[in-house]
Amino acid sequence: MVMKKKEHVVNRLLALMNLRLSRLSLAVTDSRDVKFGPYIITVTPESTLPRAYRTHPEFNAAIGRVVAAVQAKYPSMTCIDVGANAGDTTAIIKCQADLPVIAVEGDEQTFAMLKKNMSQFKNVDLV
Predict the structure, then answer these.
(1) DSSP for 54-121?
(2) pLDDT digits 0-9 by tens, 62-75
């Protein structure tokens, strides 16, 4: 109990610098959802994405605007999302334009969550 309280204090201090101390488990036992337009991306409890989007609603929004502008000039384009994580950037892209996306994620656990999240999209290839 004391350790958890210390961890809470440390996380509150780190939060002032936009950092967070977390433990990564080998099994995902819980998840959280982040909504992007009509899409919902599920992330692990350790993920900082929900807090990032709650604190900074425009976080990564520029990516969607850039994709829309580039697609206007190159309508047959394909996006490559390197380090796709759980798929939040792909969701942002798909909110702006229905174009092909290649999502690349190297971590096996994160890739499993990415695969689950990407089932709601058309024309996304996972690597």
Answers:
(1) HH-TTTTHHHHHHHHHHHHH-TT--EEEET-TTSHHHHHHHHH----EEEE---HHHHHHHHHHHTTS
(2) 998 999 999 999 99
Do the domain assignments include residue 19?
A: no
CB-based contact 83:111 (threshold 8 Å) = no
CATH number at residue 37: 3.40.50.150
User: Looking at the domain assignment, is residue 13 inside a domain?
Assistant: no
The total number of structural domains in the chain stands at 1
Residue 61, domain member (yes or no): yes
Q: Residue 79: its pLDDT value, please?
A: 96
Considering the entire predicted model, what is its pTM?
A: 0.73
Phi/psi of residue 43, nearest 5 degrees: -125, 165
